[in-house]
Design brief:
202 residues, Rossmann fold, 6-stranded parallel sheet, 48% helix
Length: 202
Amino acid sequence: MKLLDGAHARARLVGIVAKLSHYKSHDVFLEAAAHVLRAAPDVHFAVVGPDPDGARPALAALAGRLGEAHGVPLARHLHFTGPRADIPQVLAGLDVSVSASATPWEGLSGVMRESLAMARPVVCTDVGGNRELVRDGETGRLVPPGDAVALAGAILDLLADPARAQALAGAGQRVAQATFSNPARARHVEAIYRRILAEGGD
């Protein structure tokens, strides 16, 4: 899979898969990336998704400023891929999959669900329904929204201990399969209908 131009093939990769809209908090992700890069200079960062609002130039400029402020080559370690048709392969290539959204009404992140279904380590913000799947220290790492330092710390925690990160991802995969697979959803819907029918009976 060709995802990173100019990055070493064995570089560790942290990614955010989401359209480049303000409520996805890519600015927080970039600030966290600068913190991560200070502690782990081999890490690269993928920003994957469409850009409906034309936000990429401003985000690239922000990465330049953050790199200067933190004394790290963030712009050289940051890869905007645009939209991809091979998201399963993209997720499979990530060492850590991140959701930085600060929007409480967003609900459960589909990317977090898909990442854990593929047993990829995840870090996400504690908004919407994310805690239904991402249980801090059990199936992934959950951090407060808008807190770049906490986000960076959680990413570094997973990168520093790959065995633990994979154990969390494996536990998350089991929860995802038990809760969100098509058979599990079918059983849930059937149970709802049976309860409605029972409540409406004579």
